[in-house]
Amino acid sequence: MMTVIGWLIGLSMFALMALLVVHVLFALLLIVPSWRIFERAGYSGLYALFHLVPVIGPFIVMAILAFGDWPNGEGKPVPRS
Amino acid sequence: MMGFDLAAVLGLFGLTSAFAAIALVLAAWMCWRIADKAGLPGWAGAAAILLTLTGIGSVVSLILLWVFAFMRWPRDGVARLAAVGVPAAAPPGAPAGAVPPSPAALAPPAKALADRRGWTLAGGGVTLAFDDGRAAYTLTGEGSGAPGELVVPDPSVGRPHARLLTAAGRIGLEDLGTPGGTFIDGARLLPSHGPRDITAVRAIKLGNVELALSRT
Questions:
Q1: What's this model's pTM, rounded to 2 decimal places?
Q2: What's the rounded Cα separation, in Å, for the pair B28 and B49?
Q3: In three state form, how does the secondary structure of A11-65 look?
C-alpha cells in the first residue's frame, strides 16, 4: 500500500515538474518579444517576466503597455498625404 | 455515478466560455491600443488577437507578436523626421540635459506641395501664430525680446520651454527639459526624444497650458 502511494506521489511530482517546464518554455516564447517591446516603449524589460504568472500574466503585460504612458513617446498612424 | 453532476460540468464549461469571450475582447481592445501607440493602425493589433478565433489558432498570434517586437514602428520618429528634415533624437549615450543643436536650415521634403499656410497655437488665454518663415521658434513662459519667441505667460511654462521646428508644410516639437513637461496629444515628450513631427497632432501641452494646434 505504501509503495503504491509512493509511486503516486512520485508520478504527481514528475507531472508537476513537466508542467512547470512546459509553462516556462512557453512563457519564454512570450517573454523575449515582450522584453523588447517594453524596452522600445521605454519601460524596463523586466516587466515581461509577468508572463511567468499563470493565466493572467499576458493580460498584465498587455494592460501595462495598453494603459501606461510610454516613456519613449507614443505615435499615431502616419497620415497619408 | 461518476461522482459529479453532468449539468454542473456543462455549467462550468459555459462559465469558462463566457470568461474566454470576455478575455478575448479585452485582449483585442488592449492590443488595439498598443498598436495605436506604436503608430500602427489599431485594427491590426485587434485582428492579431482575433485570429485565435480562426482555425489557424494562436500560433499566428505568437508569430505576429515576434514580428511586432522586431519590426520598425511608425512611432520611431527617425524615418518620419528624416523625411521632414528634422534631425533625429540625441543618441542614448548623450549626457543628461544635453540639447541637440538647432538646425541651421530644414530641407523641404522631395515632393512637397507648395503650402503657404501657417499654424496657430491657441489656449491658456493666448493665440500664437507662426509660419515656416523661420526654421525654429522658441516657446517660452517669458519673452526676452529675442527673435522667434512665442510667449505663453504661465508659471508652469519654462524659460525657455520647448522648440518648434518648421519645414515646408511640416512642424516639429522638441522639449528643452523643463520640470513642467511637454505633452503631445497627452503623451510625454522628453528631451531625449529629440524633435518629433507634430504636423498631424491636434493638441500639445506645455506645463499646465493646453494649446490646440491648427492651420491658418
A1: 0.50
A2: 6
A3: HHHHHHHHHHHHHHHHHHHHHHHHHHHHHHHCCCHHHHHHHHCCCCHHHHHHHHH
ipTM over 0.90: no
In this structure, is residue A14 part of a structural domain? no
- Domain with A31 in it: 23-69
* Chain A residues within 8 A of B188 when measuring between CB atoms: 69, 71, 73
- Find residues 22-51 of chain A whose CB sits inside 8 Å of chain B: 29-30, 32-34, 36-37, 40-41
State how far residue A26 is from chain B, nearest Cα, in angstroms: 10
Distance, CA of B204 to chain centre: 11
| A vs B: CB pairs below 8 A | 91
Q: What is the pLDDT of residues B32-57, one digit of tens each?
A: 999 988 888 888 888 888 877 776 66
Which cell numbers in the block locate residue B157? 511654462
In SS3 terms, B94-145 reads as: CCCCCCCCCCCCCCCCCCCCCCCCCEEEEECCEEEEECCCCCEEEEECCCCC
Q: Are strands B162-167 and B170-175 parallel, antiparallel or unpaired?
A: antiparallel
- Please indicate, yes or no, if residue A4 is contained in any of the structural domains: no
What domains appear along chain B, each with residue ranges and CATH number? Answer: 6-70 (no CATH), 77-88+114-215 (2.60.200.20)
Domain count, chain A: 1
Counted residue by residue, chain B has a size of: 216
Q: Which residues of B touch A (CB under 8 A)?
A: 23, 26-27, 29-31, 33-34, 36-41, 62, 65-66, 68-70, 73-77, 80, 184-190, 193, 196, 200-201
